[in-house]
Design a protein that fits this description.
By secondary structure, this protein is of the alpha/beta class. The protein has helices at residues 5-8, 39-50, 62-70, 86-89, 136-140; strands at 14-20, 30-32, 35-37, 54-60, 76-77, 123-127, 145-149. It is 23% helix and 21% strand.
């Protein structure tokens, strides 16, 4: 596992952080009118303050952010997960920090399908760039279609 402490031990004091440009993803983040705010920003700023670092935030749509990060256009991206956008990251040496938060994934369904299980789903809409890891097997078996929305 990678720790952000590795950044604190280097001589460089300013790092460019690629972030999501979601206009409304509170409480985690919000990018609106050129301003990046929310929990993600606060936790990174706190870390930077403790270790006398400076983070400069650049916000992008998630797929573009991933491509730019993998091309070396910024130093780190947040948030990220080894299970997200695996097709883009294959054969790349990416180091991840320990989890910052824990969460439960879920899907909203029409009331008549509630409790019937995933075998009753035909299509799952996801935010573009997200990877619905819990559903990967069904997608591979062509039992579930993914609809990416922006």
């Amino acid at each position: 596992m990678f720790s952000l402490l590795a950044f604190a031990e280097q001589e460089q004091a300013t790092y460019i952080v690629g972030v999501q440009n979601f206009e409304e993803y509170l409480p985690y983040s919000q990018y609106k009118d050129g301003k990046y705010v929310g929990f993600n920003r606060e936790i990174l700023d706190l870390f930077a303050d403790i270790y006398s670092l400076k983070f400069v935030y650049q916000a992008f749509p998630i797929k573009r952010r991933n491509r730019l990060f993998l091309s070396g256009n910024f130093d780190l991206q947040y948030p990220d997960n080894a299970y997200w956008s695996t097709d883009l990251k294959s054969n790349k040496a990416i180091k991840y920090s320990d989890p910052v938060v824990h969460y439960i994934d879920g899907a909203m369904v029409h009331p008549e399908k509630f409790g019937k299980g995933v075998k009753h789903l035909n299509t799952l809409a996801i935010v573009a760039g997200f990877t619905p890891a819990a559903y990967n097997q069904l997608v591979r078996e062509k039992k579930l279609k993914i609809l990416e929305v922006f």
